[in-house]
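$ ./design --mode recover --in tokens.txt
reading tokens...
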């Protein structure tokens, strides 16, 4: 990684989020010799860093662990000069009178001529009683992180999409039994995942059912569910509950800054330009039709190319020029 720059330097591009979309944008921006900083509120990698095995990303016919894939992307971005700052969360974005952007973080403000938004999504909470109380004591959103803690136990997985089924399959490596609780009577997951789940003797499907309450003393002891067709309640004796009921875009801080759709996803034109000039969006937080690594990577590349084109036509001070705040910008990395 390159050395950190004083906060008043004007960067070419600030990228928000170091998941597959942000890291790919970082690779493309830095290869274009744009002075680039990637800001990540956690550790780099995004959702894939927590994914056991990625089987559908081209180039890895045997599959690759999500962690390894994220690590390779991170190394590649650094290779060409992108500066990655981990554990630094972006809290606000504002346009300054000279057309540059102020990217406000929990550690200061960076000035940039363009911005790429790649903040991704996070798991939706069900809000049922017991969910918040038992986080870390039986309630989880990450089978890869926590699955091994449930060796020989019974767990419930809530949801019927790819994440629910794939994470449930991963859990069968450790647990004796997985109740898959789904509000419909068929799965939304891809056919290959469905076939594997139906063939797995550790799965018991609890159809047409929604979670109502997680109960226990110190740790989770049961999940109470209700059949939405019959109204009949059932108590599943489980030690763990893994929730995969949907996702929320990490865009609350962007409300009233760029256009968002009714679910909070960032709206762009076909070339990923948001409602602000020079601000582009890519990946899962973007209102796109496919939440997958291949899509995030493709959009990350396009956002970077568009940012480069935008910068070619911009008046806002380039790196090397004194910033509006009076600081002098460092040489490009
Ligand atoms: C369990 C699971 C399994 C999956 N398996 C597959 C699979 O096998 N194949 C596949 O193609 N896809 C899979 N996906 C989907 C894939 O992970 C996503 O499509 C992809 O990670 C999206 O990349 P992204 O960069 O847009 O967002 P993310 O991966 O969500 O990364 C966004 C990053 O931005 C950071 N961030 C958010 N807000 C801020 C902020 N304010 N300041 C700084 N940083 C911020 C986040 O911490 C995060 O690191 C899976 C997802 C899950 C949950």
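writing sequence...
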């Amino acid at each position: 990684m390159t050395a950190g720059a004083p906060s008043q330097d004007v960067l070419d591009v600030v990228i928000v989020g170091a998941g597959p979309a942000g890291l790919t944008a970082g690779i493309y921006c830095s290869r274009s010799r744009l002075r680039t900083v990637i800001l990540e509120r956690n550790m780099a990698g995004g959702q894939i860093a927590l994914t056991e095995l990625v089987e559908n990303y081209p180039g890895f016919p045997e599959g690759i662990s999500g962690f390894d894939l994220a690590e390779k992307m991170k190394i590649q971005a650094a290779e060409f000069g992108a500066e990655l700052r981990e554990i630094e969360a972006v809290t606000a974005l504002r346009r300054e009178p000279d057309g540059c952007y102020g990217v406000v973080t929990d550690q200061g403000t960076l000035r940039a001529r363009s911005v790429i938004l790649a903040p991704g999504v996070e798991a939706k909470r069900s809000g049922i009683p017991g969910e918040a109380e038992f986080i870390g004591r039986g309630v989880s959103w990450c089978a890869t992180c926590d699955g091994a803690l449930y060796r020989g136990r019974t767990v419930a997985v809530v949801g019927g999409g790819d994440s629910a089924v794939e994470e449930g399959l991963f859990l069968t490596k450790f647990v004796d039994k997985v109740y898959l609780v789904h509000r419909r009577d068929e799965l939304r997951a891809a056919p290959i995942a469905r076939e594997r789940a139906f063939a797995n003797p550790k799965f018991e499907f609890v159809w047409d059912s929604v979670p109502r309450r997680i109960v226990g003393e110190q740790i989770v002891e049961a999940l109470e569910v209700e059949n939405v067709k019959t109204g009949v309640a059932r108590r599943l004796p489980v030690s763990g509950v893994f929730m995969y009921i949907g996702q929320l875009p990490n865009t609350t801080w962007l409300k009233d800054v760029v256009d968002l759709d009714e679910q909070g996803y960032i709206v762009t034109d076909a070339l990923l330009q948001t409602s602000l000039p020079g601000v582009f969006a890519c990946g899962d937080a973007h209102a796109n039709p496919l939440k997958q690594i291949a899509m995030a990577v493709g959009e990350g590349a396009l956002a970077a190319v568009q940012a480069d084109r935008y910068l070619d036509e911009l008046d806002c001070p380039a790196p090397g020029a004194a910033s509006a705040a009076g600081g002098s910008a460092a040489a490009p990395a």
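exit 0
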